Amino acid sequence: MPAAVHEHSTAAFQTGIEVLLHDRLDLIRGKRVGLITNPTGVDRELVSDVDLLAHTPGVHLVALFGPEHGIRGAHQAGASVGSDRDPATGLPVYSLYGKTRQPTPAMLKGVDVLVFDIQAVGARFYTYLYTMADVMKAAAAAHIPILVLDRPNPIGGTRVQGPVLDPKFASFVGEYPIPLRYGMTIGELAELFNSEFHIGADLTVVKMRGWRRSMYYDDTPLQFVMPSPNMPTETTALVYPGMGLMEGTNVSEGRGTTRPFELIGAPWIDADKLSRVLNGKHLDGVRFRPVHFTPTFSKYQGKSCNGIEVHVMDRDAFNPVVVGLTVIATIHELYPQQFAFKVSGFDRLIGNDWVRQDIEKNIPVSEMQRRWQAGLSQFEKVRRKYLLYK
């Protein structure tokens, strides 16, 4: 691309926070703002929303709210996060991943408008989506408007894959009936949640400029900031809607390594055999390499594991959900004595109990895919109403 064209497209690209500060300051000027964010809430120069809003004349930042992992991203997965004060601004920081997951009336006292800006990764079981929904519910109850500042879906906005969640399996890793890979931005999801699930918040989505649905994160001019401690790269996000299901089994999903969700293994797996069998299935867009690793924490901490590394060769052809389930089904088939599901955990992640039961019966993943297709087609019709970008 010629340098001048690239510079123009870079200048034309803006995330929600940049659009808000440059063009829509009227939404927050003269108001007391409560900000829900984490380390991903930055502008293109990587300046935190906290600092940006704290230093914008006419804007009164009065409270901060942090999701899982905390407002500065310091806490590991699942760790309860307490409330404290932000050392940089002295503002109160309220945790939405501890005793309470919704801002309480006391926390919202003196707040005129809520602003949400957190990077999602395109997978249904990422808890930030439900932190957003819970904040919207609290905003609706308190009659406070909420702004969602939009950000790219790192794995693109075109592909919709995997089963739609059965509401019987709703949890904080899947509250609403959406598929594992939903192909929407966080702003589009906010609109869908608000209308389809009757949250009824006074919601404004501050749209991005210059984002197209076909874009992956590296097609934007933005730097990738880790949304959580085990989401280090854009490739992690790409494999996560499928390989994240490994958390619901006794196989290591690579936590405690530098390649979580790309490295999969256990002490009792034969790495060469597993990679050979998986490569023999000729799954689109992916190759598997035998690996050996020792997790520094989480499953099999300090124990040598054997398994595979997932290498995405063609991300447009790659279906993370099909690949993730195929890996799990293959390990189940090869190691029926050693492999085990964490039943309730897996069912919550996949959003039903029949996929696990099908794996236990050695039913092919292609048949499961056919079974979930009707729900997926139905979701695609609903989704269309909320798409904000071409």
Secondary structure elements and pairings:
Blueprint: H1 3-12, H2 16-23, E1 32-37, H3 49-54, E2 60-66, E3 84-85, E4 92-95, H4 105-108, E5 113-117, H5 128-142, E6 146-149, E7 161-164, E8 179-181, H6 186-196, E9 203-206, H7 234-243, E10 263-266, H8 271-279, E11 286-293, E12 305-312, H9 320-334, H10 343-350, H11 354-360, H12 365-384
Parallel strand pairs: 1-2, 1-5, 2-4, 5-6, 6-9
Antiparallel strand pairs: 3-4, 7-8, 10-12, 11-12
Give the total of domains. 2
The CATH class of the largest domain, by name, is Alpha Beta
Helix percent reads 25-40%
Order of strands across the main sheet: 3-4-2-1-5-6-9
List segments where confidence is low: pLDDT < 50 over at least 5 consecutive residues: 1-8
User: What is the count of DSSP helices, taking H or I runs of 4+ residues?
Assistant: 12
- CATH superfamily placement of the largest domain: Uncharacterised protein PF07075, DUF1343
Q: Count of DSSP E strands? A: 12
Largest sheet: 7 strands, mixed
Q: Please, what is the oligomeric state?
A: single chain
Question: Helices and strands: which structural class?
Answer: alpha/beta
CATH-defined architecture of the largest domain: 3-Layer(aba) Sandwich
- The percentage of residues in β strands lies in 15-25%
CATH topology of the largest domain: Rossmann fold
